[in-house]
Amino acid sequence: MHKIHELSTILADQIAAGEVVERPASVVKELVENSIDAQSTQIDINIEDAGLKKVEIIDDGIGINHDDVEIAFKRHATSKINNQRDLFKVQSLGFRGEALPSIASVSDVHLKTSTGDEGTQIHIKGGEIKEIKPAEARRGTSICVEDLFFNTPARLKYMKTIKTELAKISDIVDRLAIGHPDIAFSLVHNQREILRTSGRDQLQQVIGDIYGAKNLKRIIKIENADNDFKISGFVSLPELTRASRNYVTITLNGRYVKNYALFKAITDGYGSKLMVGRYPIAVLNLELDPVLTDVNVHPTKQTVRISKEDQLCNLVAKTIYDTIYQENLIPEVMTRDRAVQPRYTTEQLQMQINQYSKTREEPKSEPLVNDYIEPVLQPQAEEEEETPKEDIKTSDIAAIYISNKAQLNDEDVQSFAHRYEQPVTPFGETEVTDDEVSNNDDQPRFPKLLYIGQLHGTYLIAESDDGMYIVDQHAAQERINYERLRTEIGEVSNDQQSLLVPLVLDYPNRDALIIQEKLGMLQEVGLNVEPFGKNSFVVKQHPTWIEEGNEEETIREMIDWVINHKNISVASFRAQTAIMMSCKQAIKANHHLDRKQAVHLLDELATVNNPFNCPHGRPVLVSFSNTDMEKMFKRIQDPHTNDNFM
C-alpha cells in the first residue's frame, strides 16, 4: 500500500483557501479584482454580518461564456495568462486561478453571469457542483458567497468582532476605489451604505469620499516621470498628518501593494517637515512596464518585487520634495487646524505666580495627588510591584580612586559601604515609583533647591546644601501636569466646556467603524463623541482639562490613539491621555522664564509624588555633588604617595 498519495481536489482547494481566503475581506478583494479585470464600470458590494453570512458582488463587466463557467471553478484555471512568458508581464489583477475554487471550497456559492447573449447560473457548495442551468442574459456577473467557513469551523475561531472584520473589508474596498477612480464602487453592509464613488475618473473626488471633503484643501497633486516610471497622485501638506500609516496608499499598475521602500520614499520626500510619529495622507499611483515587476511572490499578490527599486524610490522622494518645496507651507489662520496656533505665552503657563510671595516657603511634604485614588497607569503599576525598593539618592556618588593601602581608612572609602547597603539604580535608567518615593522616610524626599538662573531658555540652575542641580524645565512641568491630569481624567467629572462651534471629524470607513466600537472608552475619559452622518462624528463639548486653543488637536490625537491601539484597557487609555496632555501643556525649550516663574516651578516640583522622572521616563534633574565639583576643579588632589615604594 502506498504511503504517498495525491490529495483530492476538494482538500487541495481547502488547503489553498488557507493562503488565499484568510477572512471575509480576502473574499471581497479577490472577487472585486475579478470584476475589475472584467472591464466593469460599476461594482456593487453587498455585505451581511461583515461577510461571514453573505458577500455579494454585482458588476457590469464582460461576463463569462457558458462553456467556461464550470471550468472557472477548477484550480489554476484562468483567462489571464497562456504561457510562461505571460507570467513576467502580467497586466491583470488576478492570474493564478486560485481564488474561485478556494472560495467555493469553504462556502456556499451562487454565480450568475452573462456575456449579453446567454446567461448561466451555477451553485457550488463545499467545492461540489450542486446545479448548473441557464439564467437571464443581463450583461455582467453577480456572485453570492454565503456561510463562509461552514465546513472549516476552526477558521471561525480566528475571526474578530463584526466591526473589526467590516473595517478590514472597508479598508480594502477603499484601496481598490483609489486605484480605479474610473469605476463606480458602492459598499453596503446590512442595508446601510458605507461608501459610494461616482466613477468619473476623478481621483481627488474619490479621496474626498474616503478621507473627507474637508481635507481636499490641504492635499496637493504630484506628477513626474522618467524613462522607466511614471508617478502621479496626491499628498497632504505637512500640516495635515495622521498618527497611523494606514492613510498611505500605493498602487502599481492599478494594483494595491505594500512596499516598505516606497513608503519610506514618501516620508523621505517630506524631510524634516513631518513630526516624529506622524504620517501624511498620500495616494501614489505608479505606472511601469510589467516586465519590471514580479507580482507572483505571494498568493494575495499584495507583495511585489520591483526592478530598479532604488531608482523608483529616488524619483518618488524627489517628486514629493520638489512639489512641497514650491508650496506656501504657512497655514492660513482661519482654515488651519487649531493645533498649529501659538500655544504658549507667559500668561498661559498656569503657574499662578500671584499666589506666591517672593520668599520661598518650605516644600510641602505631602503629595498633591490623593493616595486613595486608584493609579491610572495600571500596567506600569503591576511591573512596579515586582521591582525592589531602592535608594533614590544616587546623584552624589563620586568615583573613588585608591592607590595605596592607607587610603582605605579615608572618610570617602569608609562611607562607601554605608552608601551601598541597599542596591542603587543609576539615576534616570528606571523610573522610581510614586510609592517608593512616598514611603522612603530615611532619606530627604527632595532637596531644597535655591534658584540661580536659566541656561538657554531650557534648563534651570539651582543649588542646595549638597551641590548644584540642573533641571529640565519641560520635563519638570510635564511631571507636575501629569500627576494633576491623571487625577482629573481618572475622576471623569461632569465639568464640561461647550464648544461655540461643534467640532465635526471625518474618518475613512475603516477608522469610523473602530471609533463606533470604542465610543464607550472615550466616554470613560469624559469625551462624548457622537455619530454624525455616515463616517463623521461630532463633539459638542469637552472636558475642562483640555487646554483652550488645542481642542481639535487633542481630541484627534485621543481618537487616533484608540484607533491604533485596539486592545487597550480604560486604565491604560487614561494614562496615555494624561501623558499626552501633560506634554502639550508643559512649557517648551527656548522659553525664558522670569525669576518668579522659575522659583514657582521648583516649588511645585518638590510637592509631586515622583519629581525625578517625566511620564516618559526621562530624568527631570541631574546633580553635581560638592565632591564632584571639587574634583573637577582639582580642589581634591592626589598626594602622589604610595606606601608600597617606601
Automatic annotation (TrEMBL):
SUPFAM superfamilies assigned: ATPase domain of HSP90 chaperone/DNA topoisomerase II/histidine kinase, DNA mismatch repair protein MutL, Ribosomal protein S5 domain 2-like
Keyword DNA damage: yes
GO terms classed as biological process: mismatch repair
Molecular function GO labels: ATP binding; ATP hydrolysis activity; ATP-dependent DNA damage sensor activity; mismatched DNA binding
Gene3D superfamilies to which the protein is assigned, alphabetical: 3.30.230.10, Histidine kinase-like ATPase, C-terminal domain (3.30.565.10), MutL, C-terminal domain, dimerisation subdomain (3.30.1540.20), MutL, C-terminal domain, regulatory subdomain (3.30.1370.100)
Cellular component aspect of the GO annotation: mismatch repair complex
Residue span, MutL C-terminal dimerisation domain: 451-593
Keywords: DNA damage, DNA repair
Pfam families in alphabetical order: DNA_mis_repair (PF01119), HATPase_c_3 (PF13589), MutL_C (PF08676)
Ranges of residues in domain DNA mismatch repair protein S5: 207-325
Role: This protein is involved in the repair of mismatches in DNA. It is required for dam-dependent methyl-directed DNA mismatch repair. May act as a 'molecular matchmaker', a protein that promotes the formation of a stable complex between two or more DNA-binding proteins in an ATP-dependent manner without itself being part of a final effector complex.
HAMAP family: DNA_mis_repair
Protein family: Belongs to the DNA mismatch repair MutL/HexB family.
Name of the molecule in the record: DNA mismatch repair protein MutL
UniProt source species: Apilactobacillus kunkeei
